[in-house]
Write a structure and sequence with these properties.
The protein has 302 residues and is mostly helical. The chain has 2 domains: 3-47; 80-295, MetI-like fold, CATH 1.10.3720.10. It has helices at 3-47, 51-56, 71-79, 82-113, 119-128, 134-147, 164-188, 192-200, 205-216, 218-233, 237-242, 251-257, 266-286, 288-295. α1 (3-47) packs across α13 (266-286). The longest helix is centred in the N-terminal third of the chain and has 45 residues, at 3-47. It is flat and about 75 Å long. The chain starts with a helix and ends in a 7-residue tail after the last helix.
Length: 302
């Protein structure tokens, strides 16, 4: 066999190996995606089934459905007052996300672009706050919220407890350290000449932050906004401990309301779970491009 024939055979074998490896990779990723999607798909399937059919069947929730409808969604929407819970969630989540990103971006800008004596210590202090479990500080925080005054226009009671502002501030406090750490590392990768050139043109510190640095951090900020929204949206601990009245609690409290002591309707619980997950899924779809870019920050240089 000639040398050219041997080389051609090797080329065909290499192509075949690459195709097989790519097909195996796609098969593995498809299986992995199905495993992660299965709980959501099963929740949608369960939410469309009538409760009486599950009770009457021997296999219960694992039986094959005879009929599917949207009755559970309509019942949950009307009986559980979901619009009010969605509104409470938006009142908490949106200001908390904006406040966290605003404070952490300014902190990261000061730490990464200016040399001062305690910049590393400040970054360590803010980052260390993420290592503290929320359950550790709930008792002193609860007592502190009972003592902190608040204007009557912001709360039914003149204290921080049972107020939207109190929950927003504690979310921003706990998430600022992580966001500062991420944004400071990203800002360090930006050229220092950009800041020096802006200073030469007479730009002030806030102008450099707002018009030079912040626009370049759009991928990182968008990725953090997605993560923060999901984390704060899904929170139940702070809403349970820092709200006295159930009318102020977010959508996660509505899930808890359906979990009875002696009886729980799994079909309605699945329906409200799907409805609670829809906003975060839509947000991820809208910010998917920025989120993926944010995850790959710093993975390649040059």
């Amino acid at each position: 066999m000639s040398i050219s024939a041997v080389a051609g055979q090797r080329t065909k074998n290499n192509r075949l190996r690459r195709r097989l490896s790519r097909a195996g990779l796609y098969a593995f990723l498809t299986l992995l995606a199905f495993i992660f999607m299965w709980p959501l798909l099963y929740a949608v399937y369960m939410s469309l089934r009538p409760y009486g059919e599950i009770v009457a069947n021997v296999n219960g929730p694992f039986s094959i459905a005879r009929s599917l409808s949207l009755d559970n969604y309509l019942a949950v929407w009307n009986d559980q007052n979901l619009p009010a819970y969605y509104w409470n969630t938006a009142v908490i989540t949106i200001p908390a996300v904006f406040l966290t990103l605003w404070v952490s971006s300014m902190l990261a800008f000061a730490i990464s672009k200016f040399s001062w004596r305690f910049n590393l210590l400040v970054l360590m202090i803010f980052t260390a706050g993420n290592l503290l479990p929320p359950q550790v500080i709930i008792v002193p925080l609860y007592r502190l919220y009972l003592l902190l005054p608040l204007p009557g226009q912001l709360n039914d009671f003149p204290i921080m407890y049972d107020s939207f502002l109190g929950v927003i501030l504690i979310h921003a406090t706990f998430q600022t350290g992580f966001c500062t750490f991420v944004l400071s590392n990203y800002m360090k990768s930006l050229s220092r000449e950009l800041v020096e050139a802006a200073q030469m043109d007479g730009a002030g510190v806030f102008t450099i932050y707002r018009k030079v640095i912040l626009p370049l951090c759009t991928p990182a900020v968008a990725a953090l906004a997605t993560l923060l929204t999901v984390w704060i949206y899904n929170d139940f601990f702070w809403a349970l401990m820092l709200f006295k009245s159930g009318g102020k609690r977010p959508i996660t409290a509505a899930l808890n309301n359906l979990s009875g002591t002696f009886f729980t309707d799994p079909t309605q619980l699945a329906a409200i779970s799907v409805m609670a997950a829809v906003p975060t899924i839509v947000l991820y779809i809208l910010l998917q491009r920025f989120f993926v870019r944010g995850l790959t920050l710093g993975s390649a240089k040059g």
